[in-house]
Design brief:
The protein has about 450 residues and is mainly α. About 70% of the residues lie in helices and about 0% in strands. The relative contact order is 0.16.
Length: about 450
């Protein structure tokens, strides 16, 4: 999307964008640069820096925040496996699964409130408040011994503070980038993958040598450093937006937004379900506990590459095009490798980075695709409205998966996730079609 783009009529949809025509022809001539149509919303004539020291410092700060928040969420399956064999050994996997499920739900659902607060007041106080509460929640988590302790400290408090941090960190990138927003957001999202690699590698020896309490204190110290870096680097830029509520139901009158929200909800159901249950799945297949640690780290390593790659490519062939390609990739990997894996450890290790590449690409593209449907000053509200729906999918994915795995077996468990991925893919096909005014144009850059 070019920063000087204006709404286009139906006749203009197949024309090449004047400012990017030469770049597209030099890079990927297959795709035509198309500005998605708008519905009763005009774009503000903002000029975006698209780079510079301040802009890249903001991306760096968002990277650190996402590392400490979503990076820890990416490792939550290790927590669940540890609780099952220690403090919560008397509870089922489904019961334990509600703890990270509530955390993820609050993390995403409270974006409904945080998004408009960000639009009105900017990032400073939201990031500072979220950082303090987040570190305190980890310190309290170190002292937990009972189910309700974990639910309050990790499920509620950590999830609430995580919402303040993640929504703000992702939204603020849109203040500084539009044409390069895909790449900038992808770089920020790599923080989640780096966290998903580093936290398992740190926790694996720490769990063996130290107590749960000291393990969590070490995690809290790491997150304190990351939050401090985020507070130092992140700055807002656009003027505050005075009007607009927490949820703008008019968003759902836009078919593009509705289909995209369904697609994101279905995919994140699969992603968080996989991250939360792969260690348990690994044990059910007869693999060692160490294999679960390794697979999570390798999956997140692939995710880091996918997030970087998708951001770069999406600015050239289009955000929705990139989303569709990576959804198809992930679906093929799921049904072609994960489904028939059985007890083949080699295939399990091959599957992990390939699935991580696809899932990392998709999750970094989701907020960028949503941002393409609105003005920059509305992004927080659009993001919050969409993820208020997505949150319900992420809340039930681990408990549902935890109950399905022992009941229908590993093959049925993976087949179920594959079916949900099919729905996600179809939803984004519909969102892309709606963006082109329901005309099939497979070469449009959208």
């Amino acid at each position: 999307m070019a920063r000087d783009a204006i709404p286009m009529t139906g006749e203009e949809l197949t024309t090449l964008h004047p400012t990017l025509g030469s770049e597209v022809s030099q890079n990927l001539t297959l795709f035509h640069d198309v500005e998605p149509t708008t519905t009763s919303r005009s774009r503000l004539d903002y000029t975006f820096p698209e780079g510079g020291t301040k802009a890249w410092l903001v991306v760096s700060g968002s990277f650190c925040i996402i590392w400490g928040t979503f990076g820890l969420v990416s490792s939550v399956g290790l927590f669940q496996a540890y609780w099952k064999t220690h403090q919560l050994s008397n509870y089922s996997n489904g019961d334990i699964g509600w703890i990270p499920a509530v955390n993820i739900f609050f993390n995403l659902f409270l974006g409904v409130q945080v998004g408009p607060l960000f639009d009105r007041y900017g990032p400073k106080w939201l990031i500072l408040t979220g950082s303090l509460l987040y570190v305190v929640s980890l310190v309290l988590l170190a002292e937990c011994t009972k189910y309700w302790h974990f639910m309050l400290a990790y499920g509620v408090m950590n999830g609430f503070s995580g919402a303040l941090l993640t929504t703000t960190a992702l939204s603020v990138v849109a203040h500084w980038f539009e044409r390069k927003r895909g790449m900038a957001s992808g770089i920020a999202f790599v923080g989640s993958s780096i966290g998903g690699i580093t936290f398992p590698l740190i926790l694996k020896p720490v769990f063996q040598k130290l107590s749960w309490a000291w393990s969590m204190r070490i995690v809290a110290l790491i997150c304190l450093f990351l939050m401090a870096a985020g507070n130092f680097c992140i700055r807002g830029r656009l003027p505050p937006r005075k009007n607009g509520g927490a949820i703008d139901l008019r968003c759902f009158l836009d078919a593009r937004f509705s289909w995209a929200t369904i697609g994101v909800a279905c995919f994140e159901f699969v992603l968080f379900g996989a991250l939360g249950l792969i260690p348990t799945y690994s044990l059910s297949q007869g693999f060692s506990n160490q294999t679960g640690f390794n697979i999570i780290a390798i999956l997140n390593a692939g995710s880091a590459l996918g997030r970087s790659f998708s951001g770069y490519v999406s600015d050239r062939i289009g955000r929705f095009n990139t989303m569709l390609l990576t959804l198809i990739w992930t679906l093929v990997v799921t049904l072609g490798l994960w489904l028939p894996i059985g007890d083949n450890l080699v295939v399990f290790y091959v599957f992990a980075p390939l699935f991580g590449f696809g899932s990392g690409s998709i999750i970094s593209m989701a907020p960028v695709c949503l941002g393409q449907l609105c003005r920059a000053d509305e992004y927080g509200q659009y993001y919050g409205t969409s993820y208020s729906v997505v949150a319900f999918a992420t809340m039930v994915c681990i408990p549902i998966g935890g109950e399905l795995l022992p009941r229908i077996g590993a093959t049925g468990f993976v087949a179920f996730f594959g079916g949900v991925l099919v729905i996600a893919t179809v939803s984004f096909i519909m969102a892309r079609w709606a963006s082109l005014e329901y005309r099939w144009n497979w070469t449009a850059k959208i």
